[in-house]
Design brief:
Blueprint: H1 3-26, E1 38-39, E2 42-43, H2 51-54, E3 66-67, E4 80-84, E5 89-96, E6 99-110, E7 114-120, E8 124-129, E9 133-136, E10 146-154, E11 157-164, H3 172-222
Length: 223
C-alpha cells in the first residue's frame, strides 16, 4: 500500500472521529431512517414531536345533565340544591296546555356574586345575585312554575336551589313505581286464586273417592 493511500485513510478516519466528537459535545443525537414501518406511533421516515409536544391535554368532562323531577326534594318546601358550573344544563317537566312540557335551565356565566342563566323553550335570560330568588312562569298560563335561588358561589360553582311550584307533574320515579306495584299485586292474587281452585278440586276428589268407596262397600255387604 502506497504512502498516499495510507495518508488518505488516516485523514478520513481523523475526520470521522472529529465529527463524532463534535456531535457528542453538542448533545445532538442522530438516527438513521430505515424501512417504512413504525416504532411506536412514530414513522421512521418522518420527524416525531417530543412527548411533551405530542401529548394531548385532557379535555374537561362535560357537565352532567340533571332532571329535577327525578328528585323528590324538588317537590318539597326546601327544594333541591345543586352545585353547578358554566354550560351545565338542568331540565324540569311541568304540565302545560298541551300536556307535559320539558324545559331547560342553562348556566351561561358565573360571576363573583352572581349567575346568568337561560330558561327555555321560550328563552328567558336572567341574572341572580347571591341571596336572591325569583319565580318563573314557563307555560304562559300566568302561574309560576319554578322558583330558583342562588345561595352562594364557591370556586366558580354556583350553589342553587330549585323549587317546583307547579305540583301537577309529580316525580316520574313514583309514577313508574305505582304500575309495577299494582302489576305485582295482580299476579299475587291470580296465583292465590289458582292455588285455591286446585286445592278445592283435590279436596272434592278425595271426598268423592271416599264416598264412592263407602258406597261400594255397602253394596258388597248387602249382596
Amino acid at each position: 500500500m502506497s504512502k498516499v493511500v495510507k495518508q488518505r485513510i488516516i485523514n478520513m478516519v481523523g475526520i470521522g472521529l472529529l465529527a463524532g466528537l463534535m456531535l457528542v459535545s453538542s448533545g445532538t443525537a442522530w438516527a438513521t431512517t430505515y424501512g417504512n414501518g413504525t416504532y411506536g406511533n412514530c414513522p421512521y421516515n418522518t420527524g416525531c414531536a417530543s412527548s411533551s409536544q405530542s401529548s394531548t391535554q385532557a379535555q374537561p368532562a362535560q357537565p352532567e345533565a340533571i332532571l329535577l323531577n327525578d328528585f323528590q326534594d324538588f317537590f318539597q318546601p326546601g327544594g333541591k340544591t345543586f352545585d353547578l358550573v358554566v354550560n351545565q344544563v338542568v331540565y324540569f317537566d311541568v304540565a302545560g296546555l298541551n300536556g307535559t312540557e320539558r324545559h331547560s335551565i342553562t348556566i351561561n356565566e358565573i360571576g363573583p356574586d352572581y349567575v346568568v342563566f337561560t330558561i327555555a323553550s321560550t328563552p328567558i335570560q336572567d341574572r341572580l345575585y347571591v341571596g336572591q330568588s325569583k319565580q318563573y312562569d314557563v307555560t304562559s298560563d300566568n302561574k309560576d312554575d319554578i322558583k330558583i335561588a342562588l345561595n352562594s358561589i364557591t370556586d366558580g360553582k354556583a350553589n342553587m336551589t330549585f323549587f317546583a311550584l307547579n305540583q301537577s307533574v309529580s316525580n316520574p320515579s313514583q309514577n313508574q313505581a305505582a304500575p309495577q306495584a299494582s302489576s305485582s299485586l295482580w299476579w299475587l292474587w291470580l296465583s292465590l286464586s289458582i292455588l285455591a281452585i286446585v286445592a278445592a278440586l283435590v279436596v272434592f276428589f278425595i271426598l268423592w273417592k271416599r264416598r264412592k268407596d263407602r258406597h261400594s262397600d255397602i253394596t258388597t255387604n248387602s249382596s
